[in-house]
Amino acid sequence: MSPFQYTDFPELANVDTHTAHHGNRLEDLRLVTGTGKYTADWNLPGQLYACFVRSDRAHAEIVSVDVSGARQHPGVARVYTGEDALRAGYDKFFVIVNWPGRGGEHMKKPARPSLAVGKVRHVGDAVAMVIADSPVAAQDAAELVTVEYRDLPAVVTVEEAMAEGAPQLHDDAPGNLSFDFEGGSEDAVKAALANAAHVTRARLEITRVAPSPLELRASNVEYDAQADVYHVYTCIQGINMLRKQLSFATDVPEEKIIVHAQDVGGSFGQRSAAYPEHCMQMLAARELGKPVKWVSTRAEGFMTDTHGRANTVTGELALDRDGKFLGLRIDWLADMGAYLSATGSASHTRNPNACMTGVYRIPALYGRFRLIFTNTVPVAAYRGAGRPDIAYVIERLVSQAAAELKLDPAELRRRNFLPPEAFPYKTPTGSTYENADMPAILEKALGLADWKGFPKRRAQSEKQGKLRGIGIATVIENTGAGLFPKDQVAIECGADGTVTAYTVAHSSGQGHETTFAMVIAGALGIPIEKVRVREGIHDKGLIGNHTGGSRSLVGAGSVCKLAAQKLIEQGRSRAAEELDVEPSQVEYSHGAFHTRGSKKHVRLADLAKNGPFATMTEASVGSTFPNGCHIAEVEIDPETGTTRIAAYNTVDDAGNVINHSVVEGQVHGAVMQGAGQIFCEKVVYDQDTGQLMTGSFMDYCMPRAGMLPDIHIVDHPLPSGNNALGAKGVGEAGCTASLPALANAMMDALRPLGIQHLDMPFTPATVWGAIRAARKN
Amino acid sequence: MAKVEIKVNGVKQSRNVEDRTLLANFLRDELGLTGTHIGCDTSQCGCCTVHVNGRAVKSCSVLAVQVNGADVLTIEGLAKGSKLHPVQQAFSECHGLQCGFCTPGMIMATVGMLKDTPNPSEEEIIHGLEGNLCRCTGYINIVKAVKQSAKMLRGKKPAKAAKKAAPKKKAKAAKKAKKSKKAKKAAKK
Asked: pLDDT per residue over A471-501, tens digit each?
């Protein structure tokens, strides 16, 4: 616990109860004073330390693993290899997809031992685990483990992996194909394409990126032999999702696995999975009778933390003579890496399929999604989880079509928007969009970005020898409905009047402790300082979803409001007894019950005299459909290929906004992750050897301060009817819109030179090369 | 093994450590000061930034023995009792942090930057933050926080707080008082 108290810091206690909240989150105090607690900060008495021996090659048979040197190293308790993983039965990981694909075929889910057995399939695949009494002893001993390999040819791209005669990663996944999934109607799209006046085609790379939350992945596992229970301290997005997966992987019943976490240093989808390290630590903690701690290095992170995106998509958009969309065909190749992650397969089939029509009326849709194994790090959900990818494809096609037809890209969008009166709209691929007002959002954004003034700005840039471009993206996305059927929130009032709420959703920067507290304080009419939100608490036995898919405010957050209301209702009957009146005569305001015309009152706190006054409530909250329009403006220096983001404007419909500064922060961060992917980030593997070339922050280009100018953010809220707050998700919307908005701006700047196509990342070298080649022609 | 004596947050600490112990690990593992975070292994992320003899230093890039006898300040020692340092306060007020993992390093780097450049331009701020990575905020609110803390450190109250603190007349009076203090100082010089 933090040694500081909020009352010690009046400047941080000065927060408003309701919506006009600015900064000063309740969690900030411990985080700005260095008294937060991240996973590496947990130390357990008597703990041992794990270090993993990892494959330095992409694809190879394991001839032998010699651990004798390591075993004799001072301080070493034990060395584990793949045989130990098999002995424990740890050879499988949970995968969300459990539905059939094309032709009723099921997904191929090859085995994945927690330590490699027989073969390694990517650089970083764990081969052995050394346990010692200090981190350095474990590391020194790990260097003494000798692995003899017989190299196999490696494949690092989906095209190579699908080619005839390609090296096969798994015996039970012929052709390296895990899953072949489809949505929409193939015949209807065929007819639309045949009858079209114009067809716009593009093959787009959505690059593989490393999510790279700044907290290094870590875990500390303790086994309580008496209770036969595992305590897993680790970085998570919510306790239940991890527990479910760990139970699946180890066959330990869920109730015997207790997951603990306090502060989590970013997640972005990368923390949603159970990892092999968790399982091996569980095994070692039980067998050695001591807690086992492991903290990843960043180098290990790049070669083992799940990557994101990694899709190659071909799209064809059919239009009639008036620029009306007739049909869209998508051929999607998803690189799954060497093994299936829990979320990656659903992220790159179900999610893009759900939003394949974008914000447009497209009568015929067809998507085919193939998931392919390659000798690379497994791919999982990454902020947006397939939604930014599909939005990128649709929105690039639309802007390209506008350019080909010499139409204003805003006008082409206007002609094809789903009109507000079309909602609720059932899309051809089975989603039901709740509501959206795209025409109004577009006009607002065009005004905000001074769309009409662009030619003038372009001319000014030209005078200075620069290329200027403007790009629009109008997008919609389904927020995650969640794997668990409902979200429960427990709430209690203590004798001192402090109200505490417990949720499964777990913040990794989203500020639940503040926003959820604002919801509860608002519902109860009490100061926010009197409200605490606690996450990662196992003993409440709550059912609920982890944080992901932009769902936490919509799910857990809205249930916080219901829980507060239920607390009032239960308190009303108890207060009525104390006030000796009928419950209907009892009114509630600002933390107290009273009867009209009487000075007698009972405070919420009074009901907790003999122990906490507590209740629990739940709701099943499905998807919401946040939507919006982003307009980006870029300026390229053709002499160097460097790009400056000149302006960035957003109009987002995130439903009712509870905490503006948190929502703006989410938009900032997500747009920056989009900008990072568009301009610099890319995981690179060597084509021949499958070596990871971007294995550190020295080689992998992370966005730094100044890449993004201040963003102009305007809300256009249409409340959602699916939850008690009227909120829609917002965490991922910035990624979904920024990828296409920025890429469209780049293409707009480059098209006048005759450059018709360029893939992300638009690095200076790529842009300079394309300009040079275009000028030669 | 080597004996090191380092003054950390004003308290003299003496330990026997392996020669290869990094200052970051010394602070975290030997002293339990886990506010200093480790986010990479190539001195890129800046999460481990502390002050050594008043200068901002990435504590993963120095050995504990190298700072023997030095004065080290970590994030835990920045607030004066219960009074937050203006940079800490500004990061919170400007929502310049989300997950908080990069925050201690960002704050220590900012304190260092503002010592050298008390009134930095936007470009100077961006340059000054080059050695620190953040994955959550897009840096937009961090840049705002640096600007606000620079103002606070130069003795100007942020507009929002000043409005709340005092009605206009009083604020004017306070300004006058400040001016006269400044004038007196200038006269002394």
From this structure: 999 999 999 888 899 999 999 999 999 999 9
Options 3.40.50.720, 3.30.70.20, 3.30.365.10, 1.10.3430.10; which CATH number does A213-304 get?
3.30.365.10
What kind of fold does domain A406-477+624-776 have according to CATH? Aldehyde Oxidoreductase; domain 4 (3.30.365)
Mean pLDDT (whole number) for B146-169: 68
Would an 8 Å CB–CB cutoff place A394 in contact with chain B? no
The answer to whether the A213-304 and A481-619 domains have the same CATH topology is yes
Task: For residue A698, list chain B residues with Cβ-Cβ distance below 8 A.
Answer: 42, 44
A181-192: average pLDDT: 98
CA–CA gap between residue A597 and residue B14 (Å, rounded)? 69
Please state the CATH superfamily assignment of the domain spanning residues B78-159 in this structure.
Answer: [2Fe-2S]-binding domain (1.10.150.120)
Which three-class secondary structure state does DSSP give residue A693?
coil
Given an 8 Å threshold on Cβ–Cβ distance, is A705 in contact with B142? yes
Report yes or no: A535 at the B interface, CB cutoff 8 Å.
no
Nearest chain A residue to B49, by CA: A34
Chain A residues whose beta carbon lies within 8 Å of the beta carbon of residue B157: none
According to CATH, the superfamily of the domain at B2-77 is: Beta-grasp domain (3.10.20.30)
Q: Torsion-angle region of residue A125: left (phi > 0), alpha (psi -120 to 50) or beta?
A: beta
Q: Residue A10: pLDDT band by 50, 70, 90 thresholds?
A: very low
Binding-face residues of A in 642-701 toward B, CB within 8 A: 661-662, 664-665, 668-669, 671-673, 675, 696-698
For A296-306, the pLDDT digits (tens) are: 999 999 999 99
Q: Where are the domains of chain B?
A: 2-77, 78-159
Q: How far is residue B189 from each of residues A544, B176, B181, measured CA to CA in Å?
A: 65, 20, 13
pLDDT attached to residue A598: 80
Asked if residues A106 and A100 have their Cβ atoms less than 8 Å apart, the reply is: yes
**Closest by Cα among B38, B42, B45 to B23:** B38
State how far the Cα of A611 lies from the Cα of A626, in Å rounded to an integer: 42
Do A215 and B37 make contact, defined as CB atoms within 8 angstroms?
A: yes
> How far off is chain B from A467, nearest CA to CA, in Å?
23
- Cβ–Cβ of B101/A213 closer than 8 Å? yes
Note whether ipTM > 0.85 here. Answer: yes
| Residue A639 to residue A160: CA distance in whole angstroms | 35
Q: How many CA atoms lie within 13 A of A186 on its CB side?
A: 6
| Token reading at A254 | 């869920």
pTM over 0.90: yes
How far is A293 from chain B, CA to nearest CA, in Å? 13
Domain ranges of chain A: 213-304, 406-477+624-776, 481-619
- Nearest chain A alpha carbon to B84: A9
pLDDT tens digits, one per residue of A76-111: 999 999 999 999 999 999 999 999 999 999 999 999
Q: CA A720, CA A742: separation in Å to the nearest integer? A: 28
Residue A487 CA to residue A676 CA, distance in Å, equals 33
Please name the residue of chain A whose CA is at the shortest distance from the CA of residue B146. Answer: A705
Least Cα distance to A521 among A564, A553, A571 occurs for: A564
Q: What is the pLDDT of residues A412-433, one digit of tens each?
A: 999 999 999 999 999 999 999 9
State the best of A9, A12, A24, A33 to mutate against chain B, taking most chain B CBs within 10 Å: A33
Residue B169 has pLDDT above 50, yes or no: no
Architecture (CATH level 2) of domain A481-619: 2-Layer Sandwich (3.30)
